[in-house]
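The freezer alarm interrupted the setup, so I double-checked each line after restarting. Inputs confirmed:
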Amino acid sequence: MISFGMCFILLHLEGKITIIKTTYSEEELIVLLKEKNETGFHYLYDHYSGALYGIILRIVQSKEYTEEVIQDVFVKIWNSIHQYDDSKGRFYTWMINIARNTAIDYLKSKGFQNELKNQPLPDFVYNTTELSTTNNSSDYIGFNNVLEGLEVDKQELINLAYYQGYTQHEISEKLKIPLGTVKTKMRNALMKLKDLLKDYQ
Amino acid sequence: MNTKEYISSGIIESYILGHASPEEAGILECVMKNNAEVKAAFEEAQKTLEHLATAQAVTPPSDLKSKIWNRIQQEQSSVEEIRPSLSTDIPEAKDDGEMKTREQIQGKTNWKSYAVAASVLFLLSVAGNLFWMNSQSAVKQEMTKLAAEKQSQDVAMKKMDRKLNMFSNPDMQMVMLKGVEKHQDAKAMVFWDKKTKKVYLNAESLPKTPEGMQYQLWALEDGKPVSAGMYTEDKDSQIALATISKAQAFAITLEKEGGSPVPTMENMYVMGGI
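Predicted 3D structure, all chains:
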């Protein structure tokens, strides 16, 4: 924080960004973003765009849609950084949830529009098979790899809750298991996931 | 529910996924502030999903970054463009000085009008107080007048009472003294208590005595005048002037202050026989 503080002072003294740190803590990044600092944007994009892009792609399952959604997501992060409350969660998680919600909302609005147009299936449905068959393309390196290490029921649970925006009630109905069981199963799935992820760190 | 049960209920995961109800979320946020174990579990669960996101990152198209930055800048400049059009009513920066002086003038005029208002209020208050004090003193004067009136009425009432007592006392013998030839309008009344033999006099209607002179009551006992005491107004109908055991008539003469051993016959005012 002290070194950052020094940079901060230098930035102000010279009126322009003259010192570019290579790493910032989340707290430092948040300060930069609140100041609408361009360095903050670059750092944000360079460090989080891949993860957010991956999440959005898994949800909307179309590169075209993903590119639309991720723009909205970064604009939202940029504009609503003052609403971020660290007592309610980590900054990275906050951004992930913005990406998830924006993507799920986007899908719902698309689905709604397609229903109005009386189209039999939205194109992202077709993309699902496309994505699964192009796993070897450089764009999709690592796609699904992690979750595939889980048991099928845990995969399904995480897919429904995390990528498809199912509420726990909807999962309970869809999988025909009690609500309490959905909650504990979800926890177990994430505990298992945590173990799996150790290999990726 | 203990901490472990609470954590393993899956509430933390629900919260992170945005599935927790507002009530559940409120409880968890509160528990986290006070329970390090729950807070740690919350951090862990978040990190797990963050690691998942990192592990499953997909490299975006290379032109995406500049697209997003351009959009952010466009939105900012459009916001800045909207601002001036919204704020046309607000004077521009060069008018700031003028605005300030105007505000100062307004401030001064405000101060002045407050001062004027305060003075007016003060004067009104003073006038009100004077009026009130005046009316108060008038009321006080009226009160003292009434009090004096009441006092004199009380005195009169007491006198009346005393006379009434004398009249109503069955032992009291009343002797009417009538004006003699020189003082035909004069009259007085002697109350003679037959039991105690005490003599009271009611002589209010007699003329005021000159300086150094006093009315003296005489009892005529077997033709001889015997002094029956000196009369003063405070004794009237109240204090016995003398104790007379035997008398056939009473008379009042005007004598020098302190009385005379013999009545001055030419100074007799009233006389009455029993």
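Quick read of the result. Residues 106-168 of chain B form one domain.
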